[in-house]
Amino acid sequence: MRNKNINIMKELFIHIVIASLAIYLLFNFLPTIVTVYKVIFTLTIIGICFLDAYLVLSNNTKLLKLTKIALSIVLLCIVIVILIYYITKFLVFADMYGIEQILIDHKSIAKLLFFSICFLQPIILPLPEAVTLPAGSAVLGSFEGALFGFLGSVLGIIVMYFIARIGGLKLVSKLIKEKHLKSYQEYVSKNETIILTLMFIIPILPDEIICVGAGISKVSFKRFIFIALLAKLVTSSLLAYSVYLAKLFSLSTTQLVIASSIIVTIIFLLSIFIKKLLKKSNSEEVYMTSQGD
């Protein structure tokens, strides 16, 4: 009996924490939301809490799990609304003032802000690296821009990969368009490693599509992370130093990115071709040796 009461108290404590967190987020992170929606959310949370009390008093504690799920759903809805609100707000500001200006205006937290932007890019932030990395390097410097851009992007890619791997197709289909996934599968079906590397370097598809496609198609994590690290090291360094290189070669940033992508692609394809030639040559030598014996 005592253990049962302790378990009930623990369960109620979890409910109170979820409810308190939901109300805190609602009133502190959504200042512009219409009051009626705040009231609806708040009354819903309070109603569930009263239901918790009724279930405990009526000794019907088995249903507490259902009320916890209900509270969790309300909390999740609030978190989603917050994400949509702040991402939209950020995109509007980025469009109006540019990412570079946003980083300058928040110089004290510019590194953290830039890292967060790069981290969210492969997950939920629809901004190309060709926009964010040059802006970051202009404020932080080329080296730090490349470093934080690389670390943020890779971490975001890993998170998105595991979201796809764990969440599966049902969850992912709600985040991205089905036609993009089909495009990915068409690109990758022939030669997984080569195509993945090229897609990360050349902006054929957004990174989130590549991560999701890799996660769903069960590409091994070791191979995927190796490809991502290599590709992002190239793109982060290239884009972070693009301003300097563009001036050096009298090219625009876009022209430099295109030219560099072509060069990287040619080098990569040549390395694959040479590797195949060497493999073929070795096979012929083995065959000739076996014939001689």
TrEMBL record:
Keywords: Membrane, Transmembrane, Transmembrane helix. InterPro entries: DedA_domain, VTT_dom. The chain crosses the membrane at residues 12-30, 36-57, 69-88, 108-127, 139-164, 194-217, 224-244, 256-274. Residues 127-244 form the VTT domain. Signal peptide: none annotated. The keyword Repeat does not apply. Belongs to the DedA family. This is VTT domain-containing protein. It comes from Gottfriedia solisilvae. The lineage of its organism: Bacteria, Bacillati, Bacillota, Bacilli, Bacillales.
